[in-house]
Amino acid sequence: MASFSTPQVYIEQFNPKEYLQEYYSEEDGVLLADWVDFTLRNLNDTFTKGGVGGNTLLDFGTGPTIYQLLSACEAFDKIIASDFLEQNRAEIRKWLRNDPDAFDWTHLINFVCDVEKNGDDAEQKSETLRNTVKQVMKCDVHKKNPYDPIVMPPVDCLLSCLCLEFSCKDMYTFTEVLKNLQALIKPGGYFLIFGVLSCSFYYVGEKRFTSLPLKQEELEMAFYKSGYVIEKNVYAPRTDMSTLEISDFDNMYYIRAKKPK
Ligand code: SAH
């Protein structure tokens, strides 16, 4: 078996433009069928009925994407985006400053406005998000303090989408990372994590990246072992099987975990 994609592989081979086009574009986004619906509806629920909100949300492994922050910007005063790769942080900054070369998220912004039904249009929503994201930082999952040398003040809510299974080579590492991330959350604060089960690879253009194939029981066990309390867990099967050669996940997961007081 090919070895797990290293940080160096990400630095050299992860192309944000290709990733966005392939997974999120209105024309051919592989993740539009199932993933986006699953995450955006669960996030909206969490920040409305679910009562999660507060001062600061920290997004870990933001990548070049903003869809995951569209509902959060209504529930938090401040959002901090963060990713390992400079090319991804540059892509986020482009969208934040409304650069003509930024990815067009309008279709998903409209989707969130429809789900939220608070009367906002895409332009107002974009402005709210742009005003709420205050920082775009570098993080590295492989450091005990992923923001080293910066010590982050603990936040009300940590969010992470499709990052840990793509950057942790085994369950031991995944569990250690969950423990390390706990230091970033205030006691009583939340960790919201979204990802995919049984995924062993995904393509970005011609480049193949590895993933840790997670099983539901192992995933939940990793949270228990790291000292979180799982408040909610949601699983949904993939329905669109037409793109299995691009990525082989079979289910999606959402875990809302609490750091005990
Ligand atoms: N959150 C986005 C991006 C997921 S792609 C989405 O939902 O689509 C996987 C992400 O993991 C990439 O942004 C990549 O830069 C990040 N990643 C890879 N290695 C990492 C590491 N060592 N530490 C933190 N993030 C890493």
Average pLDDT confidence is 97
The ligands bound in this entry are: S-adenosyl-L-homocysteine
Report the CATH topology name: Rossmann fold
Number of strands: 9
SSE arrangement, N to C: HHHEHEHHHEEHHEEEHEE
Measure the end-to-end span.
Answer: 43 Å
Q: Main beta sheet: strand number and arrangement?
A: 7 strands, mixed
Word description of this protein:
This protein is of the alpha/beta class and 261 residues long. The chain has a single domain, classed as Rossmann fold, CATH 3.40.50. Helix content is 35%, strand content 25%. It has 10 helices and 9 strands. It has a 7-stranded mixed sheet with strand order 3-2-1-4-5-9-8, with helices on both faces. Helix 4 links the parallel strand 1 and strand 2. The mean pLDDT is 97. Bound molecules: S-adenosyl-L-homocysteine.
Could you outline the blueprint of secondary structure elements for this entry?
Blueprint: H1 7-13, H2 16-24, H3 35-47, E1 54-60, H4 72-75, E2 76-83, H5 86-96, H6 106-116, H7 122-132, E3 133-138, E4 155-161, H8 164-167, H9 171-182, E5 185-197, E6 201-204, E7 207-210, H10 216-225, E8 229-237, E9 251-258
Parallel strand pairs: 1-2, 1-4, 2-3, 4-5
Antiparallel strand pairs: 5-9, 6-7, 8-9
Bound molecules: S-adenosyl-L-homocysteine (SAH).
Give the tags.
alpha/beta, Rossmann fold, seven-stranded mixed β-sheet, 10 helices, 9 strands, 35% helix, globular, binds S-adenosyl-L-homocysteine
Quick description:
With 261 residues, this protein is of the alpha/beta class. The protein has helices spanning 7-13, 16-24, 35-47, 72-75, 86-96, 106-116, 122-132, 164-167, 171-182, 216-225, and strands spanning 54-60, 76-83, 133-138, 155-161, 185-197, 201-204, 207-210, 229-237, 251-258.
